[in-house]
Amino acid sequence: MGRFLVCVTGASGSVYGKRTIEALLAAGHEVHAVFSTWGRRVFETETGLDVESWLDGIGFPAGRLYAPDDLASRPSSGSWRLDGTVVVPCSMSTVGAIASGATTNLVHRAAAVALKEGRRLVLAPRETPLSLVDLRNLTRLAEAGAAILPASPGFYHKPASIDDLVDFVAGKILDRLGADSGGGSDGLFERWDGDPSGRPAPRNA
User: Fold this and answer.
1) Helix (H) / strand (E) containing 97
2) Overall domain count for the chain
3) How far apart are CA 166 and CA 16, in angstroms?
4) What span, in angstroms and rounded, lies between the C-alpha atoms of 180 and 65?
5) Residue 65: what are its φ and ψ, rounded to 5°?
6) Residue 109 in domain
7) Which residues, given as ranges, of the chain have pLDDT below 50?
8) Does the global pTM surpass 0.85?
9) What is the CA angle 32-12-161, rounded to 5?
10) Cβ(6)–Cβ(20) under 8 Å?
11) 67 FRET partner, CA 20 to 30 A, in 76, 103, 109, 138?
12) Contact call for residues 106 and 9 (beta carbons, < 8 A)
């Protein structure tokens, strides 16, 4: 099992961060988390949940939730080993800060550490539309080694609920982190295995 850090920022779509934490934890991974100030506020607004109460309810171990201004915490150091870091959802202000090297909070610092140490870093933006500034910042981060994974669920699996759409993105995140899900990511979304009718597969399948 791996050790992963999930960072939740102030973009809409905090349910993606919620599901990613739940899926990693359910698969038996060691999960750590940090919510930016606005990430916490948006999470609680969109889900109606208190962050600490929710984490306690899903069995999230004490001592693994870090304050966004605690730059002396473990995720700030490259000597603290991680198998992967994901920022989900990733706001455009967070993208801009990471791309410029301006580490003003723990999310920025943790992402910078992942880049400098050559570790997996997944950024899941949900903003739309994207400005040229946003696109250039995302390109810089991709060139630096980050995986850009927009929160854009597929529809070929015929989702029947919002949960199905959220699970699709969370499953993709676990895949990109290299997180063994113990069947979890296969359960989170249906992988394309060809069309038994013989029709051509959808583009980008």
Assistant:
1) helix 92-100
2) 1
3) 6
4) 22
5) -105, 125
6) yes
7) 183-185
8) yes
9) 90
10) yes
11) 138
12) no
